[in-house]
Amino acid sequence: MGRINRILWRPALLGLSAVAAVYFAVAWATPYQPLNEILVAVTSGVCAVGAISFTPAALRILLAPTWPDRDERATLALWIIMTSVATNSVWALWWRLSDQPAFLVNNALYDGWRLGLALGIMVLVQAPNLVGRGVPALSRASYALAWSAAVALVLYLAIAKPELGWLADRARPYLDNGVGYGSETP
Question: Does one domain contain both 62 and 8?
């Protein structure tokens, strides 16, 4: 029992758990659309502030005549991620407030934001300890296995285009609940 207490009673873990619990309680009791619009607006604002804050450093790194070092790559990765999330959040809010037309989310620009997120995350995970000290280095075999699995999944989804309606139907009872999610709370 002492070992479990040592693992569970950590400030960061407890704080994150509390945020998750409060969010899911609020999400369950709040109409979906207003909550979504608030969360998208907050995300957009926070990421925009971050992107703007990182822009001078990112430009300095991008315009330097040498390849960026580890910390500079981390700065670039965070700038790419924050810029992608900020602009995508503004776009998502526009989509939500304009009756959700499919053309706003089924286009190359929208998919480009996904590429920006993937690129930023790839930069963050490409080296151990890039952002947080103590993140272990993966072995070549681990990287090879992870990349092989990711590429295989992408190829399978792109080539086979499996019908996943059955999976959506199975998930619906767990996702389609709460006020404004399709069923009202009792």
Answer: no
Q: Specify whether 19 is located in the same domain as 37.
A: no
Q: Per the domain annotation, does 47 fall within a domain? A: yes
Q: Looking at beta carbons, which pairs linking 60-63 to residues 24 or more positions away fall under 8 Å? A: none
CB-hemisphere CA count at 13 Å for 39? 12
Asked whether residue 152 is assigned to any structural domain, the reply reads yes
Which long-range contacts link 145-154 to residues 24+ away (Cβ below 8 Å)? none
Judge whether 130 and 74 are in contact, CB under 8 Å.
Answer: yes
Give pLDDT tens digits for 85-115: 888 888 877 877 777 777 777 777 777 888 8
Question: Residue 2 corresponds to which tokens in the numbers above?
Answer: 């002492």
Q: Which residue type does 7 have?
A: I
Looking at the chain, list the stretches that DSSP marks H as alpha helix, in order from N- to C-terminal side: 2-8, 11-29, 32-62, 70-96, 108-125, 140-160, 165-175
**Side-chain-facing half-sphere of 169: CA atoms under 13 Å:** 4
Instruction: Calculate Rg over the CA atoms of the chain.
Output: 20
Is 56 a residue whose pLDDT tops 50? yes
Contact partners, residue 176, CB within 8 Å, separation at least 6: 182, 183
CB 84 within 8 Å of CB 113: yes
Q: How many domains does the chain have?
A: 2
- Cβ 180 vs Cβ 27: under 8 Å: no
